[in-house]
Write a structure and sequence with these properties.
By secondary structure, the protein is of the alpha+beta class. The chain contains 4 helices and 24 strands. A hairpin with a 2-residue loop joins strand 16 and strand 17. The chain starts with a helix and ends in a 7-residue tail after the last strand.
């Protein structure tokens, strides 16, 4: 009878333990291969020729939409991948290599999105770094969601991925001896402010005044990034290119990430013409010719509206344009990235910020200390 009571007691303890684990959100049916798991620590146990992979037992959800992996040891090559995969993902492949999976790889900083060929995404990660991965839960039921990655608590970037009926499961991949990580499936990460807000340091009235940006008497297109349309120039953070009145950019500087400070300014020449600045009638009298390198990408003008003028008018127009030329320069974290010469449109050049994807947020200072 005592043996039966002992057995019953053990069964009850096991049941309570299982209920407790489920209530704590701990993985119920996690899978892993060529890895050793000791609590929340994973270490590679293969021969460095085959991938080892861990897949959590529960997908990310609205109530648990983020997890983190701390690199304890990079081992021989540091080929550690952190991301999301379908429930029955093959454990002999790195996360991100197969369809419907996505991962940030520590060794090269690339993003692998359902393809064994990665794309440049963020910085490399080393021992002690924390790689986080999460989803914007508001989209999870729409069949597609935005997956974002962080490094040491700071967002690196995001990408839209399809979501299967089972959801997306936290996954960790390793591929060389000595690699070891610590997994926190209950990690939390919060934005400092609401995603949709644009914060302004000061001079809110000045920023509000810029809502109606005008070039040559025409509103700047609200569905066009700065730099894409004529009369504008911009340094783009995602690819480090400069766009000057064209949807095709030129190599310019490094990519920019969360925490980077992008600056833009104008250097006016001593002979800059101030009289009549902002008067469209004066500007319309200028001869704008796309063929001249000095006046490319200046105005929203239709080619059919341009008229031929004599040599005298052409020379006068060029002289006045020379007087309206300025040098626009861009900085990153206080260091000069480069310059671009352009003609100032009527009404002047307005500080402008463009965004194109969910979750993007910037802090604007229209009067920073400089020099």
């Amino acid at each position: 009878m005592d043996d039966i009571n002992v057995l019953h007691h053990r069964c009850l303890l096991n049941l309570r333990r299982r209920v407790r684990d489920i209530g704590d959100g701990r993985p119920a049916q996690e899978r892993y291969m060529r890895l050793q798991k000791d609590g929340d620590t994973l270490s590679y146990q293969g021969n460095s020729e085959e991938v080892g992979c861990y897949v959590a037992g529960r997908p990310l959800s609205k109530g648990n939409c983020y997890f983190e992996v701390t690199i304890v040891d990079t081992g021989v090559r540091g080929t550690i991948a952190v991301g999301l995969v379908p429930k029955f993902y093959r454990l002999d492949h790195q996360p991100g290599w197969l369809p419907y999976s996505v991962a940030y790889h520590a060794d090269n900083g690339k993003l692998y999105n359902g393809n064994p060929v990665g794309q440049q995404f963020g910085p490399k990660c080393a021992r002690g770094d924390r790689i986080g991965c999460g989803i914007h839960s508001e989209n999870i039921e729409a069949g597609i969601t935005t997956v974002f990655f962080t490094k040491n608590g700071k967002e690196v970037g995001s990408v839209e991925v399809p979501v299967s009926a089972e959801g997306l499961f936290p996954a960790v991949g390793m591929h060389s001896m000595g690699e070891e990580v610590k997994v926190d499936l209950q990690a939390e990460w919060f934005l400092e402010e609401d995603d949709s807000m644009m914060m302004v340091d000061s001079h809110e009235d000045d920023w509000g005044r810029l809502y109606d940006v005008r070039v040559s008497g025409t509103d700047y297109p609200k569905n066009r990034h700065p730099g894409w349309s004529r009369g504008s120039v911009a340094y783009h953070a995602d690819d480090g290119k400069i766009f000057h009145g064209s949807g095709v950019g030129d190599a310019f500087g490094p990519r920019c990430f969360k925490g980077d400070i992008m600056g833009c300014g104008i250097m006016f020449p001593r002979d800059y013409i101030l009289d009549g600045e902002g008067e469209t009638d004066d500007w319309d009298r200028l001869d704008i010719r796309p063929g001249h390198a000095s006046v490319q990408n200046v105005l929203y003008l239709n080619d059919e509206e341009e008229e031929e003028e004599g040599e005298d008018g052409e020379e006068a127009g060029e002289q006045e344009q020379e007087g309206r030329k300025v040098t626009v320069f861009f900085t990153r974290n206080g260091k000069l990235m480069g310059r671009r010469e352009m003609v100032v449109p009527p009404g002047g050049l307005y500080p402008t910020v463009g965004m194109l994807s969910s979750g993007e947020k910037v802090k604007v200072d229209l009067h920073p200390l400089s020099g």
